[in-house]
Amino acid sequence: MARLGLAAGLLLFAATARGAESARVEMTIGAETPRTAATAQQWYEVLTAIGVDGLQIRQRNPGEDPEVVDQGTKRSPVYRVYGLLTARNELIVPGHRFSIRDRDAVADWLKQLREEGVDKASGAANGPFGLTADQLAKLREDLGRTIETSTVDLSLVDALPMWSEKLRHEVALDPAAQPALAAAEKNREELRGLSLGVGLTYLVRAAGLVVVPAGERGGDVVLVVRPTDPARESWPIGFEPGAKPEKLVPDIYEFLTVEIEDTAATDVLASLSERLELPMLFDQYALARQGIDLPTVMINLPEKRITYSMLLGKTLSQANLKYELRVDEADRPFAWITTARPAR
């Protein structure tokens, strides 16, 4: 797992605008570590030589990510680029990762940005997260690896490096996620048998964090753990099934006669999970934000003949919850249980 650290007062360079181009490109680069003064000078010289306008290199602020913003007009386009300078002396911009030896590639990227605009230069038009279909397929395959050990009482601090070692894709931590990571409670659910993708996204969700894939030059994709942002797309906790529910959970529409009186919701749900052989993952982040203490909720249902699916829905409704049948990256089913009202 990559650690992203920052220190105040790193350095600041500024460059004046160079010759006129088809579009003006202004760039700010945030350095992720305090030991980048020498490498920052190298990048300053490279970027000014190839015509970047208004260049600044400074410390990275928490929550900042590579992006390109179109702030000009059709007649006078201006693209403001925010890039990240890593501890490995690599420059990350949307869809690309450059080394200091990639001067020509950087120049080609700037030329493409000026002439073809943000979407073409960043790869945003390729697909979700700006990734190609091949990148998405490889990422899903990698995240589909099975969790083989128990996750009960597993902390996020321990899980991130342990699971990162099992993945081909790098997992990086946004500095803004550090406080939530340190304060995260231990996991309560058994995730063994599900995918590493579900395990990773589920544990960070409970801490108020998300996983955002970032495409880079050379086809590499980094999984960035960062604070939740409702306006920003993130890797989901499971996916909508392609198969019908009865194919994934054979007994889900089987009828039974049931009567429940003053029974803890957690006991009813545990029994259903075992009977259906269906893992149930609880959206602890949403439950906490809406003040739902599930162990204290008591379930009462009059004697009735219903399906397991209906029983699950009625049980959850008494706790102001709902469920969705989802599959992990390897198409293994689980029930995602969250609040009836969305949590922000």
Observed structural traits:
Phage tail protein beta-alpha-beta fold; alpha/beta; 3 domains; 11 helices; 15 strands; about 350 residues; three-stranded mixed sheet; disordered N terminus; single chain
Tell me briefly what this model is.
By secondary structure, this protein is α/β, with parallel strands linked by helices. It has three domains: 13-125, no CATH class; 129-227, Phage tail protein beta-alpha-beta fold (3-Layer(bab) Sandwich), CATH 3.55.50; 245-339, DotD protein (Phage tail protein beta-alpha-beta fold, 3-Layer(bab) Sandwich).
Architecture overview:
- With 344 residues, the chain is of the alpha/beta class.
- The chain folds into three domains: 113 residues, no CATH class; 99 residues, 3-Layer(bab) Sandwich (Phage tail protein beta-alpha-beta fold), CATH 3.55.50; 95 residues, DotD protein (Phage tail protein beta-alpha-beta fold, 3-Layer(bab) Sandwich), CATH 3.55.50.
- The protein is built from eleven helices and 15 strands.
- Strands 1, 2, 3, 4, 5, 6 and 7 form a seven-stranded mixed sheet that branches. It has a three-stranded mixed sheet with strand order 8-10-9.
- α5 packs antiparallel against α7 and α9 packs antiparallel against α11.
- The protein is elongated and about 80 Å long.
- The N terminus is likely disordered.
The coarse silhouette is elongated
Backbone CA Rg: 24 Å
Mean pLDDT: 86
- Tell me the strand percentage band: 25-35%
Along the chain, the helix and strand elements come as EEHEEEEEHHHHEHHEEHEHEHEHEE
How far the N terminus sits from the C terminus, by CA atoms, comes to 28 Å
Helix coverage percent of residues?
Answer: 25-40%
Determine the number of helices (DSSP H or I, runs of at least 4 residues).
11
Q: What is the domain tally?
A: 3
Total count of strands: 15
Task: Report the structural category.
Answer: alpha/beta
Biggest beta sheet summary: 7 strands, mixed
